[in-house]
Design a protein that fits this description.
5-stranded mixed barrel, about 140 residues, alpha+beta, OB fold (Dihydrolipoamide Acetyltransferase, E2P)
């Protein structure tokens, strides 16, 4: 019986030196393949680690989600005292999950100002606490 050719008999260490077009870990723990950035899931940050804080601009206000109405619509109690039927904008759909009691940023529509609006941002619990401490969110 013939000995296998040297290209077939490569050891695991040799494979790491000359990787395949895809990432082969050769017995390494799976975290090694995630560190390269080519494979694996996107790292999920906990709510405490999120640093981006969006503040209301002109014509925007804070609101608290009161009721889920189905599909992309929610009943929101806004800072100006009105209850609005708000819809989740397309960029947020299926990316940001909103539940009853969440603090959101609402932009009322130009027409039907007192009854309709768009949800622009959902604040995490930690961000809502910071806004309450600063006095910006009095709800």
């Amino acid at each position: 019986m013939e000995e296998p050719s040297p290209s077939i008999r490569r050891t695991c260490a040799e494979r790491r030196l000359r990787p395949y077009p895809f990432n082969v870990t050769c017995g390494l723990d799976e975290s090694a393949s995630f560190e390269s950035g080519r494979l694996g899931k996107k790292k999920v940050l906990s709510e405490g680690q999120l640093r981006e804080m969006v503040t209301p601009g002109e014509g925007q206000m804070f609101g608290i989600v009161m009721q889920m109405l189905g599909y992309d619509r929610l009943m929101v109690k806004c800072a100006d005292g009105h209850e609005r039927v708000c819809r989740i904008r397309g960029k947020m759909k299926r990316r940001v999950w909103i539940k009853v009691g969440d603090t959101v940023l609402v932009a009322p529509w130009d027409f039907q100002f007192e009854t309709r609006g768009d949800i622009l941002w959902r604040y995490t619990e930690a961000q809502a606490q910071i806004l309450r401490q600063k006095g910006q969110l009095a709800m």
